[in-house]
Each structure stands twice: as C-alpha cells, then as structure tokens.
Amino acid sequence: MEMMQIQSAEKRPENRPQEKGCYTVEELMDILCVGRKAIYSLIHKKAFPALRIGSVGYRIPKAAFHAWLNQVS
C-alpha cells in the first residue's frame, strides 16, 4: 500500500525543469558568439540591466536583453 502512495521523483512538479527568466554571462557568450570580456563590457556600460547575485555572478533578465538586442539589430 505504501508503495502506491509514493510518487516517483520524476512525476513531481517541483522536479520538472522550469523556464528561467534570466541569462547567465556564459549563456550570453553563446548567444552573441563573443567572449567574457565583451559581455562584461556591455554589463558595465549598462547596455542592458544586469543583477549581481553575490558570488554567483551576474544574471541578465531575458526580456530586457531581447529588448536591447532588438534595438541594436
């Protein structure tokens, strides 16, 4: 009986991958095909909003990044 009540970890909603709302520096490097220095330069020039999260690093909101990208392209 107990076995029937336990759901597998794969079926629980909290274990499903969720769409992230932010990019990392590494993800932007892949998207723009540029190096780390270029991304940090854009961050410091405030080309788009970026959040510094302690020692984790920067996170760039996807909506703000895509708005910037549409303006420059």
Structure description:
There is one protein chain. This protein is of the alpha+beta class. The chain has a single domain (20-72), classed as Arc Repressor Mutant, subunit A. A hairpin with a 3-residue loop joins strand 2 and strand 3 (57-61). Helix 2 packs across helix 3. The protein is 44% helix and 15% strand. Strands 1-3-2 form a 3-stranded antiparallel β-sheet. The protein is built from 4 helices and 3 strands. The protein has helices at 2-5, 25-32, 36-44, 62-72; strands at residues 22-24, 51-53, 57-61.
Distance N to C terminus: 60 Å
Number of strands: 3
Low-confidence blocks of residues: none
* Structure class: alpha+beta
Taken from the alpha-carbon principal axes, the silhouette is: globular
Total discrete domains: 1
Classify the beta-strand content into a percent band: 15-25%
Run of helices and strands: HEHHEEH
Q: What is the strand arrangement across the widest sheet?
A: 1-3-2
Please summarize what this structure is:
The chain is α+β, with helices and mostly antiparallel strands. The protein contains 4 helices and 3 strands.
